[in-house]
Write a sequence for this structure.
C-alpha cells in the first residue's frame, strides 16, 4: 500500500521557460529508459517476486518507490519549463484569444505541439520524439540475476541519456532536475551492481556508465560532494531488509561506501502552477469559480502564490 | 514523495490456479480502462494541476495513490491465478524439464503464452488481448471540469468491465479482487461525480454506472454492507483538503453519505510467491543460493512459507 | 458531404452464434487489409486528389463510399455471430450474474476476450489477432498510377483473406457476408485494374487474385450468377464521371462487361440487436427505461422484435 | 448504406500556405480526440447498438455521419494549408528537381516531413505529433449512459483542442475550418448532454466545455449568430427519430433551443487541388496524360480551374 | 555487403504439425527478445560503431550476421510446424473449399489466426501474443560498455525464453531448433561477457543465464557435447579481428575455451515447402503454372519433392 | 546462411553535416516503405516460399539480400550526416560538457532529438516522423502473383519517396546515397515487373513509377549511364536461377535489357566513424581504453583515420 506527502524529492529551480528543453526532458519521463519505465519495471518485479530472498525484493522495490517521486519531479519540471504560451502573458479570466489574436502563435512551432494542444503546458506520458510510453518496455523476466542485470542496463542508459540532456541546455530549471537524476541514477547503478556483487560479479573499474569525471558538471558536483550518489532510501514505513545489500564498499571500487536511509534528508515544496487562461486551464469561469471557492477556504492563505514556489532555506545548495 | 508499507489493500483469497481468469483480469491491470491507466492519469493530473483549487487536486491525487495499491493488488492476484505450470508440481532445484519432459506442455495453449514465456507466471503490463499498455490512454486535458468528467467515464468503464469479469468465473481468488474493485470503482465514481456536483451538476438517478442491484453479487454485497463504496482515503502523511468535497450525501442520490478517511481500516499480508523452477524463477542454483542466503537471515523466520499466505483474522469477511 | 439510409448492402442471414468465426471476421473489419482501411484509404485518396482527372477520383471515391457500408455490414455480422454469452439466455432486467453465477464462464476462453469485456458482444476496430487498427496502413501516395496499383493490391489481399475465412466455417451468418465481400472485392479489383488499363496496362489472365474457380463456393456462385462482381455503384446523389472508366470489357479478359449503377439493386433491413443484460447493454434499469420510453413511441411498433430481423422477400437468393 | 454529394459542409477560405498550421490541424483529424475517432466511435456505437431505444441510436449515428463530412473538410483544409512546396512554384510537366536544384529544400524543416515525403502535400491519418491514428481510441462500451458520457467527453475535448488551435494562427484557411468545428462540437455536446438530460441529469451551468465567451473569436461569433451551434442534422434519406431528443431547451441552460434539420442549410464547392509536379502528383507524364484525357471530356469545362475554388454566393458570411 | 548460400545453419527435423508450438516459437522470431531484434540490434550497433576498436565491432557484427541465419532457421521451423491446415490434406489444383466445405475449420481456433488468414501457414514478424515486431526494441546506445551489457541481457533473455519453450512441447521439429538456439545463445552470452571481461569485469559463477544443468535437455546435451556453445563464427569473407576477444577461457569460468571459426562446420539443406491450395499459395492456376513452368527447367529435377526435405547424412546427430 | 564483407555497395561522399537531411533519410531506412521493410519483406517471402518455382524465389531473395546492404549504406549515410554535435568540435577525452557548457545546445532543436539523446549521432530504426519501424508492414501473402505486385508497389513507393527526398537537399552525402537508391529501386521495379510479365502482364508505358526523366537529376544520370538500373545481383555463393527471369528486354519497354550478375562490379570502403566524446561514444575512458588497446594491434595501422574515409579510385564517378 502506498502513501504520499506533498513534497518534492529535489527543488524546482526557477529560470526562463524553454519548450525545447521541456521536450528533451520528456525522454527522461516517458522515454523507453525514462522514469515511467523504471517505476513500473521495479514495481512489477517486486510485486511478482518469487522466493524468499527478501533483501533483493526490498532493494528493487525501494528504487521503484523512489521512481514515482522522480516521475513527480520531472513532471513538475517540464510543466515549469513550458509555462506560459510563447508571447502571451494573460491574466485569469482575460478573454482567451484576446478577440481573435493568435496569442499562442509560436506554440505550433514548438517541438511537440501536444504540449499546447493536448495538455495545458504540462508534462505528457511520451518521449522526446512524441511517441507514447509503451508497456512492452517493462521487463520482468522472473529470473533474479537477469532482472538485476536488466535493471543495471536501464539505470546506466538513464544516466547516459541525462548526461547528454545536461549538455543540451544551460537552463537552470532543466539542469537542477537533470543533475539530481544523474546522481540518483548512479546510486541506482550502485544498488543493482552491488546486488550482483553479492552473487559473485566483480565490476572492477567498468562502472558507473558512462565513465567520466562527472564533477565537471558543476550542479552534479555539488550533489556528489553531498554524497547523494551513495545513498539509497527504503521509503518504507514498516522496515526493510535492503541494507543487507546496500552497505559497505561501492561496486564502483572507488573507495566510497554505500549508506541506506529511510528517506532523503531533505524535502522540498511543490510550487503552485499558475492558471493558463489561453489553455482554458483550469478553466473555471466566474460562475464555476464562485462554486469552487465556496467550498475551499484555502485561498486566503495565498496572498501571493508566487511566493510559495520559492524554495525554503536549506543546507544543500541548488 | 511516495512511501510504502508491505501490506495489501485487500486480501488474496486462495483457490485453484486459472490462467484464463488471470488473462481476463489483465484487462483490469493493463487494459485501456485498467488500474495502470487510472494511476497514471490521476497522478499526471495532480502533478500538472493548475490554479489554487486544492481540494480538487487532493481528491484526484488521493484516488491516484490508491490506484498504485490496486496495481499491486491485481498484480498479486494474477500471479496467484497463474501459479504453477499446468500439470507440473516441481520442487526447487529439481531439474527443469525433468530430462526433456514437456512439463509446461499445456502452457502454450493458454490465452497469453507471454505469461509463461516472457514472465514467470506473473502479471504483465498488457490487456486481456495481449496488447501492451499505451501512454496515449492517459488523459490530462488541463481543464478541471473536463478532467473530472473524463475520470468519471474512466471509473464507470472500469466498474462495468469488472462486473463483466465477475460473471466470467467463480474462482474465489479472482472474485475477491474483482469484487473489491467493483466497490472501489463505485467510490471513485462518487468522488468525481461529487466534485462535479460542487460545480453544479445534478446526477439524479443516472449513477452509478452500470446501474443495477450489485448486492446480487454476494462478494460485492459483503463489501457494500461494510460501506466500503462510500469511503475514500487520502493516503496522505501530511494532511489533505479532499474532505471539503468528499463528504455529505453521495451523488448517487440513494440516501448514503460519503466518508473521508486517512487510510483503509484494514490492511492485509502480502503472500510470498513460491519459486517456479520450470521458469528458472528466481533461478538461483545452489552456488548462487548459498551466496544469497549468506546475506539474508530472513529465511529462518520462514519455517513454513505457505503459512504466510494465510490471511490473518479480521472482522470483515472475504 | 455524406448521407445514410437505415439499410444494409447485403442481408444478415441467421445461424448459430460462433465467437471464433466472429473473431476471424474481425480481420475483414479492422485488419490491415480490412474494410476500415479500404474505406479510409480511398476517402483520403479522393479528398487529397490532385489534378483534373475527375473520372479517376470519382471511381476511387465511389469504392470508398461503398466501404463504409461494408464496415456497417461486417460490424452487424460480427455482432450477430457473437450474440449471447455462451451458456446464458437471460431476459431483460434479469439479475446480472444471477446471484453470483458465472453466466459468462465460457467467455474468457473465447479468441478475443475484448468482445465480452470491452465491447458488449459487438464488433471492435481490431484485427483477428486483437491488434487495434492503425492509421499507418492508409496509403495515399499522391501519384495516380501508384495509388491505383496499391488499391489493386489491397483489394486482391482482401479477397484472398476472405476466401481463406470462407473455408474456416460453414456458419451461414459468416458465409453470407464473406461471400458478398469476395464478390465485391472482385468488382473492386476490376475497378482499379480497369483504371490502370486506361493507362496502358494489359492484365491478360493474371486477374482476379486469387485465381481459381470461385463458383465452387456455392454462396459465391449465386452472387456471380447475378453479375454482382461486374457492377460498381457511384453512391452519388449528384452525378459521377466514374462510368467513363468502369464500362466495357472487364480487365480479367474473361468476356464479361462492367456496369456502372447509382446504387445496388436491392437493400436489406438492419436487424435489431437484442439487449444483453449480462453485459449491461444497453443497461437501462427500470427507472432509466421509463424515462427513455417516455420520449420514444417507437416501441409499440415492436410487438415481436425478433421478426424485424427476418429478411424481407427479395428476388436474389441468399 | 451511405451516399455522397461532391460538396463541403463548410467553405475553404483561401489564404497563404502554412505547413505548421496544417500540422496543428492534424490533431483535429487524426488525433486521439479528432474527427476520425468521432466518426468511427459513433458509427461503431450505432452499428453495435442494442435494444429498441431508436431515438438514441439515431442521434448517435447522425453525429457519426456528420463526422465523415468533417473528415472531408479537415482533409481539404490541411491540403490547402500545405499546398506548394515552400520556395517552389513549378508548372505541370516542368522538370522535377529542375536539373538537380533542391526545390523542396525547406520541406525537410517542416513539422512533419511525411507531409512532403509520404503524402503529396495532403492530409495524413496522424496527429500533430506524427503518431498514426489508433483503433484503441474508439470506445463502444455497449452501455447507453456510459456511451453518451464518453461521447460528451470526446466532443468537449475536441472543442477544447480546437479553441487552442484557433489561438495558434490567424491564417484564414485554418480559422474558417477550426471555427466551424468549435461551433459544431458545441452542437454535438448539446446532443449528448441533452440525451443524458432525458435520462435525468441536470447540467446546470457546467456546459459547454470549455466555458468561456466564445463570441470573442470573431469567426466563431458569426456562426453562433447564425445559430449553427444549436442545429443538428439527421443526414438521413429515410427518416430519423432523433428529433425526439434533439429539441426543446439546450442543456447549456442558456435560454436557447435545439433544432433538428435533415441537413445543413448550405453546401459549398470542393476546390480542385492543383498538380504538384515536384511531388510527382498525380504524376501523369505526357504519354499517360494523353491516355487519361482521351477518356475524360471533363477538362474543357475547366478553362480556369482556379475559379472553381471561389466560394459561391451565400447568405452566411465566412 | 551481404551474401547468401541456400543452406540452413541447423537441420529441420520432421515431426507432426503443431500450430500451438509454432505460435510459441514466434516469440523467438518476432518477440521483444527474439532473433529479429538481435539481428537488427547488432547490425545497427556495428553500422553505427564509433572509434577504432575493431575487434569489438567485428565481434558484435559477427553475431548479428549469424542472427540473420537464425531468422531463416526459425522461419522455416515455424512454417514446418504450421504446414497443412488441420484436417485437410489437399492436392495441388484441387478445388479450394471443396465445393463449400470448411476445409480449414480448425484454423480459426488456433492461437494466432493470422498464420492462416494473413500468411499461408508461414512465419510472421510477430511475437507469441500476436503483437508486431517493434523498432523501439533495437538498442544502440553508442556507448561500448553499455552496448555490450545490453547485448548480454538480450542473449540471456533469449536463452531463458527458449529454455521455457523447450519445456512446452516434445515436438521434434520445435525442439531441434530451440535446442540449437539455447546453445547458440550461450555462445553469444560468452561473446559479450568475454568482451566485458577484456574491460575488467569478472563474472565468477553468475553465467550463463539461466544457471542450470542444461545437459538435462537431451537435444541440448548433444550440441554441448559437440562444443557448439563455445564456438563463434565470423561469417566474414574478408577477415575479422574478432578472435582477439573470442579466444581463451570462457567467461563462465567452467574450464572450457572459446574457439573462433569462419563458419559452422556443417550446413544443412533447406526443405521445399509444399503448396497449400486451400491458402491459394502459391496459387498458380493451370494457365499461370504453364507460364511459370515454361521458364523454369528446374522441375524435372524434382521427381519426388518430398525427398528433398530429408536431411542428408551427417556426423552430428540431431 | 548469410555472409558479409566489410565493404559498402555505394560510396559515402563527404559533405557538411545536415541533421535535417539525416532525418528525412530516416524514411528510407525505417519508414513504412524503407529498406528495413524491403529487406524483411523479401526475406520472409523467400523463407516462407511454397512450391517449386525456384526462379521466382531466387529473384525475390536476391533483392532481399541486397536490401541488407542498403540498410548498411543508409545507416552509414545518416551517421555521416549527423556527425558532430552542432557547434561542438571536441577531442577525445575532452571533458564532456566542458565544465558545464551546453556543447550540444542546438541538438534539442533538431528534427528528432533521439539522434542525440538515444543514439550517439547514428541511425535509428525509425521513420522521418520519429515513429519506430513496425512489423505489420511486412507483407507475405503466400500468393505469388500478389506478392510480386505488392513488391512492385513497395519499390515504386520507395523510388517515389527518394525522388522527393532528393529534391529536399543538395547535400552531397545525402544525394550520393539517395541517387543510388533511386536507380536500384528502378532495377527492383524491373525485377518484380518482369516476373509478372512472365505470368502474362504487359506494362506498356506505365513503368517505372514515378514516370519522369530521371536524367534531370545529375547524380542519377551518371548511374543510369553506367546501366546500374538494369542490373540485378544474385549475391549467392552457390548459384541461383534468377537469371531465367531477369534477362531480356526490360518491362519498362524502353529498349533496354536486363542483366543478371553475381554481385556489383565495385565495392567501396566503409569509413570509420570518429568518436563523439560529448555523446560518451564509445566512451572508453583512459583506464578502459588501455585495456581495449592491449588486445587490439589494429590501431597502429591508423596513423590518420580520416584518410580511411576517402573513397578509393574507381571508374564510376560519384
Amino acid at each position: 500500500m502506498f502513501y504520499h506527502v506533498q513534497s518534492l524529492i529535489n527543488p524546482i529551480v526557477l529560470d526562463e521557460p524553454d519548450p525545447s528543453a521541456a521536450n528533451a526532458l520528456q525522454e527522461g519521463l516517458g522515454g523507453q529508459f525514462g522514469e515511467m519505465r523504471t517505476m513500473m519495471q521495479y514495481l512489477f518485479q517486486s510485486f511478482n517476486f518469487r522466493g524468499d530472498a527478501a533483501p533483493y525484493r526490498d532493494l528493487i522495490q525501494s528504487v521503484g518507490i523512489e521512481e514515482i517521486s522522480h516521475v513527480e519531479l520531472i513532471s513538475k519540471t517540464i510543466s515549469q519549463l513550458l509555462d506560459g504560451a510563447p508571447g502571451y502573458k494573460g491574466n485569469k479570466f482575460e478573454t482567451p484569444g484576446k478577440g481573435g489574436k493568435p496569442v499562442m502563435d509560436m506554440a505550433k512551432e514548438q517541438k511537440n505541439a501536444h504540449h499546447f494542444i493536448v495538455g495545458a503546458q504540462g508534462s505528457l506520458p511520451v518521449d522526446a520524439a512524441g511517441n507514447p510510453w509503451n508497456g512492452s518496455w517493462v521487463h520482468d523476466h522472473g529470473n533474479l540475476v537477469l532482472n538485476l542485470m536488466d535493471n543495471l542496463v536501464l539505470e546506466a542508459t538513464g544516466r547516459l541519456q541525462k548526461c547528454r540532456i545536461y549538455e543540451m541546455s544551460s537552463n537552470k530549471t532543466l539542469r537542477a532536475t537533470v543533475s539530481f537524476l544523474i546522481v540518483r541514477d548512479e546510486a541506482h547503478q550502485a544498488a543493482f551492481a552491488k546486488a550482483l556483487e553479492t552473487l559473485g560479479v566483480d565490476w572492477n573499474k567498468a562502472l558507473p556508465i558512462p565513465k567520466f569525471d562527472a564533477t565537471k558538471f558543476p550542479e552534479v558536483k555539488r550533489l556528489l560532494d553531498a554524497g547523494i550518489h551513495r545513498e539509497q532510501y527504503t521509503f518504507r514505513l514498516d522496515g526493510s531488509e535492503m541494507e543487507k545489500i546496500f552497505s559497505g564498499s561501492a561496486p564502483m571500487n572507488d573507495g566510497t561506501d554505500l549508506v541506506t536511509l529511510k528517506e532523503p534528508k531533505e524535502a522540498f515544496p511543490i510550487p503552485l502552477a499558475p492558471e493558463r487562461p489561453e489553455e482554458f486551464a483550469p478553466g473555471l469561469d466566474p460562475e464555476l469559480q464562485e462554486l469552487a471557492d465556496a467550498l475551499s477556504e484555502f485561498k486566503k492563505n495565498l496572498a501571493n502564490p508566487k511566493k510559495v514556489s520559492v524554495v525554503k532555506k536549506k543546507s544543500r545548495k541548488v
About this structure: The two ends of chain E are 32 Å apart (CA to CA). Residues 299-315 of chain E have pLDDT under 50 and may be disordered. Strands of chain E lie at 2-4, 231-233, 248-249, 257-261.
